[in-house]
């Protein structure tokens, strides 16, 4: 049986980044937990032992510093599973099972458990909770959305969209979102601020946007299954050349990276047309039932804020992520709100978050949901959270259950800041299109190709289309 390990790479020169990025984009045998982005930032990659044996000499030849972060991924998965089984046999503290509906927020749950919890909340708190499906997955699972608002308070309300679990292996994401639901529902009568959020806002929350992938990742301790990222779309096959005098081989792989499948510069950067790639973008934008469900729901409702939760790296991102130094017209508002939110998060356990666009803080990637929400759905506030752990911590996607509640508690403080900002929006600020994006000079295209967007301060105002700053 193949043994999988995770390597920690520390590129210190641009040519090392370029080499690793080429591997990331073109070799599906490597599962990058943290992709190559810029000099000085760590890269984490999971690979089987036979591939590792061939890869290490290539790293040494390029003087790329490397060390073993996890020696045996399956062993860690099995150890964590045994800890979970042991803990569940013990009596848990009431703090974790608070409220009329008993649900242990301090553990990872199955999709069925999540459905039962949401339905129990709707039955127990009918005056402020309702549950509905927004779509059906490839494997026939309904994608549940819970709506939380005071049904007795009339008038038009702003909406906040929250989703988790778009990537299957990022288990702390849906667990964190479930904590938000718990707070909004059970603390309504105890916390005046939460009561205001429920009375004056409509919360549309999808804790598990990718239930097929999530359940698949729970089905085995095999690292290739536990660390599954995509959805479970039917297999797509491609033919690959196997040598000058050899017939081509056919390879078939399942799944689409849902966060490359939204209609925002679809397929242009940071995604792949290879169905075997971890970042396979799909055949076309919104080709997947999960992403089209998000599109259809958001477009039909008055959404002012869009929050999507991932792991890991401890980053709070705002649009746009498809290109470095590319921002929306209300950048100052987005950034100041993100900074306030990260400060509130830090006040709980002193957890440090970076703030910026995905392209500026990680790497450019198009087709992301938060970019689409801002650029195409015209949502005012759109943010992506990369939750715990930080990049230097060894466990990555295998975050232990004792980290769920600390992660959720601190992140909830950030969400409350963003919700308060949403409530404070002037009544005339609606979902309106961004400014019309046109160039004001016939030479804009050639200037942009020459790098003027970065070097000439007036270029962005004069040539916004060519600089791609108001698309």
SSE blueprint:
Blueprint: E1 4-10, H1 14-26, E2 31-34, E3 43-48, H2 49-61, E4 65-70, H3 73-88, H4 111-124, E5 129-136, E6 142-148, E7 158-164, H5 172-186, H6 192-200, E8 201-206, H7 211-217, H8 223-226, E9 236-240, E10 249-253, H9 289-300, E11 303-313, E12 315-317, H10 331-349, E13 354-356, H11 358-361, H12 369-375, E14 381-390, H13 404-423, H14 444-449, H15 452-455, H16 459-462, H17 464-467
Parallel strand pairs: 7-8, 7-11, 11-14, 12-13
Antiparallel strand pairs: 1-3, 1-4, 2-3, 5-6, 6-8, 9-10, 12-14
Helix pairs in contact: 5-13, 10-13
Kindly describe this structure.
The structure is a single chain. With about 475 residues, the chain is α/β, with parallel strands linked by helices. It has helices at about 15-25, 50-60, 75-90, 110-125, 170-185, 190-200, 210-215, 225, 290-300, 330-350, 360, 370-375, 405-425, 445-450, 450-455, 460, 465, and strands spanning about 5-10, 30-35, 45-50, 65-70, 130-135, 140-150, 160-165, 200-205, 235-240, 250-255, 305-315, 315, 355, 380-390. The protein has an 8-stranded mixed sheet, sandwiched between helices. Helix 5 (about 170-185) packs across helix 13 and helix 10 runs antiparallel to helix 13. Residues about 95 and about 430-435 have low confidence and may be disordered.
């Amino acid at each position: 049986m193949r043994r999988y390990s995770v390597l920690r790479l520390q590129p210190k020169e641009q040519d090392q980044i370029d080499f690793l990025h080429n591997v990331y984009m073109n070799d599906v045998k490597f599962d990058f937990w943290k992709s190559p982005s810029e000099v000085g930032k760590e890269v984490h990659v999971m690979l089987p032992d036979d591939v590792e044996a061939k890869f290490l000499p290539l790293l040494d030849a390029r003087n790329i510093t490397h060390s073993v972060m996890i020696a045996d991924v399956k062993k860690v998965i099995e150890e964590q599973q045994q800890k979970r089984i042991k803990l569940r046999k013990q009596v848990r503290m009431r703090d974790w099972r608070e409220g009329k509906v008993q649900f242990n927020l301090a553990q990872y749950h199955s999709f069925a458990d999540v459905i039962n919890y949401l339905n129990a909340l709707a039955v127990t708190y009918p005056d402020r909770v309702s549950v509905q499906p927004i779509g059906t997955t490839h494997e026939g699972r309904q994608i549940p959305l819970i709506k939380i608002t005071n049904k007795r308070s009339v008038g038009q309300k702003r909406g906040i969209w929250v989703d988790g679990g778009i990537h299957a292996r990022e288990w702390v994401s849906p667990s964190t979102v479930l904590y938000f639901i718990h707070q909004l529902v059970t603390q309504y009568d105890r916390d005046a601020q939460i009561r205001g959020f429920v009375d004056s806002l409509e919360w549309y929350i999808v804790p598990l946007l990718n239930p097929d992938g999530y359940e698949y990742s729970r089905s085995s301790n095999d690292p290739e299954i536990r660390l599954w990222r995509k959805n479970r779309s039917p297999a797509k096959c491609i033919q690959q050349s196997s040598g000058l005098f050899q017939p081509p081989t056919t390879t078939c792989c399942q799944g689409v990276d849902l966060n490359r499948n939204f209609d925002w510069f679809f397929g242009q950067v940071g995604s792949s047309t290879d169905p075997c790639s971890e970042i396979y973008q799909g055949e076309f934008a919104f080709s997947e039932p999960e992403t089209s469900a998000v599109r259809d729901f958001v477009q039909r409702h008055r959404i002012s804020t869009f929050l999507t939760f991932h792991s890991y790296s401890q980053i709070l991102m705002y649009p746009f992520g498809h290109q470095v130094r590319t921002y929306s017209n209300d950048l100052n508002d987005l950034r100041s709100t993100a900074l306030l939110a990260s400060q509130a998060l830090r006040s709980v356990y002193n957890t440090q978050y970076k703030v910026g666009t995905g392209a500026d803080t990680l790497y450019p990637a198009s087709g992301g949901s938060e970019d689409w929400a801002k650029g195409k759905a015209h949502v005012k506030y759109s943010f992506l959270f990369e939750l715990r752990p930080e990049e230097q911590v060894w466990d990555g996607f295998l975050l232990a259950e004792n980290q769920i509640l600390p992660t959720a508690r601190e992140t909830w403080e950030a969400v409350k800041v963003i919700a308060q900002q949403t409530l404070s929006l002037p009544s005339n600020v609606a979902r309106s299109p961004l400014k019309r994006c046109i160039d004001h000079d016939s030479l804009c295209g050639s200037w942009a190709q020459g790098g003027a967007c970065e070097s000439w301060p007036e270029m962005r105002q004069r040539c916004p289309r060519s600089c791609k700053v108001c698309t």
